[in-house]
Amino acid sequence: MDRGDFRLEQLSEGIFEVSAAGSIRKIRDHHKKEPPRESFAQVGIDPVLIDTGSTRILLDCGLGMGLDRKEPDPDTSNIVTNLDIFGYRPEDIDMVVLSHLHYDHAAGLSFTAKTGVVSATLPNAKVFVQKNEWEAALRSLEEPTGINGMGYEPDDLYRLVADGRFVFLEDELKEICKGITVIRTGGHTPGHQIVRIRQNNRTIYYCGDLIPNETYLNRFVAGKIDTDTVKARKARMLLMQQAWRDQATLLFYHSVYRKTGMLVRDKNRGFVLKKG
Ligand SMILES: [Zn+2]
């Protein structure tokens, strides 16, 4: 994807089915076009790679399927196989922004080596997370969060935190690299954050799970997927208005169909997505 001076790629891991309880499985043969099973939602998994020319940044890390040496799976794709497609090695990545710590966004960050030791998938990367998000992940070990879909699995992250790989953000707005700003929204989880990318008068927003795909633009989603529903709705509306004013491109992490687009206003349907 050409976005001016920055290189920007979506690293798609495929299409998955997620149950209300949060179990996930890959739809192996998507060509058969089986109707989605009831009570399962179909989602894409699409981390983003930004190469500014001097810094390589990943936005979320995917499911990490097949990274563990114990269970090799030649059929799967993950952050390492997808970086390889674009000519990057895991050690090339300088920074990772995790929108939040649910495992479908964070699991690719680590793997279990043959020896059973948890190791960093991206050995040179600093990981940017909101401080209150890490606290929420730790709390979830004692109190269930009560929301549908994917949850926290902080156990694998301890090692990385202990090794000083995490940078815990406490600011609502933080420019981590020239043109790349992390914005805390909360809502979906207490420390959920999105990313604004600006260069050459162009603005791009990576929406994380605040707007997982285009169907979230104008509907109130059935089932509780957000920790704080009201806060999430408000933050979602603010993002849509800002993105519309900026003529910004939106990048979606969980889309099955359109993974990017720009917003236009439709008098009957509110915000709708057009190519962009
Ligand atoms: Zn998610």
Task: Record the SSE blueprint.
Blueprint: E1 2-3, E2 6-10, E3 15-19, E4 24-26, E5 40-44, E6 48-51, E7 56-59, H1 79-85, E8 95-97, H2 103-106, E9 110-112, E10 118-120, E11 126-130, H3 131-139, H4 158-162, E12 166-169, E13 173-177, E14 180-184, E15 193-199, E16 202-206, H5 229-246, E17 249-251, E18 260-266, E19 270-274
Parallel strand pairs: 7-8, 8-11, 11-12, 16-17
Antiparallel strand pairs: 1-2, 2-6, 3-4, 3-5, 6-7, 9-10, 13-14, 14-15, 15-16, 17-18, 18-19
Q: How would you describe what is shown here?
A:
The chain has helices at residues 79-85, 103-106, 131-139, 158-162, 229-246; strands at residues 2-3, 6-10, 15-19, 24-26, 40-44, 48-51, 56-59, 95-97, 110-112, 118-120, 126-130, 166-169, 173-177, 180-184, 193-199, 202-206, 249-251, 260-266, 270-274. It has 276 residues and is an alpha+beta fold. It has a single domain, classed as Metallo-beta-lactamase, Chain A (4-Layer Sandwich), CATH 3.60.15.10. A 7-stranded mixed β-sheet has the order 1-2-6-7-8-11-12. The chain has a 7-stranded mixed β-sheet with strand order 13-14-15-16-17-18-19. A 3-stranded antiparallel β-sheet has the order 4-3-5, with no helix packed on it. The longest helix is centred in the C-terminal third of the chain and has 18 residues, at 229-246. It is globular and about 60 Å long. The termini are close together. Zinc ion (ZN) is lined by residues 102, 104-105, 150, 209, 254. Zinc ion is lined by residues 102, 104-105, 150, 209, 254.
